[in-house]
Amino acid sequence: MRRTTTAIIPALLVLLLGAGAARAFDPPPWTDPGDLPLPSDAMSVVATQDDIPIESAPTAGGRRRGTLAQGVPMPLFAIKRGPGCNGRWFAVGPLAWVCQDHMRFTTDAPVAARDAALLNVQDGLPFRYYFVGRGGSSGYFQLNSADQSSPDQDLEAGFAVAVVEQRKQNGETYGRSHHGLWIPMRDLVPVRPKTFRGEVVTEGKLDFGWVMRDDARGLAKPVPGSPPTDRRFARFQRVPIVEEQTVRKDRYLRIDDKSWLHERDVRKPSLAAPPSEVAKGERWVDVELATQTIVAYEGDRPVYATLVSTGKGPQGSAFATPKGVHRIWVKLIGSNMDNLEDEEASNYYSIEDVPWVQYFSNGVGLHGVFWHNDFGRVRSHGCVNLTPLDAQWFFSFTGPHVPAGWTAVLPTELDPGTVIRVR
Fold it and tell me: The whole model's pTM is what?
């Protein structure tokens, strides 16, 4: 899928509110001489709404740094007057200024300045996601008007929403989507988390692969027409690869002393040298279209590998994953994806808060997927699809890093976007 709108994830606040400093404003923030004093009991500042812009300097319209989540107590390092803000600008981190117009002081200790709390999402899904059932559904911005008046929005079958709250109204249970729609839970089908995840690479060797079809049979010999062995393999099963042979243009992989598998039944990542754009020891990511795999590297050493689904279109088309060397230009914990404005679309889709999005070529990026399980095969509209667990791993691995309380971040010279090479 490709990007349409961005989204913020307040449901993660419970994960972000880790142990903060015992005392905030110690030392006190820097302020302009003679400016208004701070509240005496204030220990942090919080955003009063979602998607608050974070600027790199105390001025509006400059270089954007990211977005801030609602309700997370942030540290305060400096306060300065500047254009584009009726109040004052608050520095909540290095090169990170937010306008006071959308903030308030609190007595809560600030969240610790780290992003590790994001890893506490155990199944890779930062929300509880639901699909709209076959009959479609309706959404209401006010719970007390649900099923009592015309809906504010119609939801087609197959649309996906992120539910952050459930309440009873007139004997019915309604779920509130992240974007404020109350939807009858009777019309929603819960998403089942994908359990497949990739492999940590040891000793720098990519000597394994994954079986691509259910009930695959081992072969006794690496030749066409070989009788099968008694070994059977399941889809996504990890297998060691101890030998490779090519016979009559067919390639076979030996997985133990007695069994071989045809290459078409296995996806095996391959080693690759770093592109020239990568510094020595720098982290980077290699996407291999031919094998539908992705490998994370530190310099020339692979550290993690897994399956992906890339764009189903040929190079140069709208649904292609573009080859080349790119850098991540923005990371978002969640992003809405849809084609509702495409008047020529034969089918419409709408997915709320697609998780762990990392755009590297305009609207093409890495992101988690919970609506299919076809990893290892081309399928997407251009993006690199991963299981939510794998997308979460890569989100933590790459730069720029997302500080606690942030829900989107753009790179800087000191924290650049990681190289994504597609080949």
Answer: 0.90
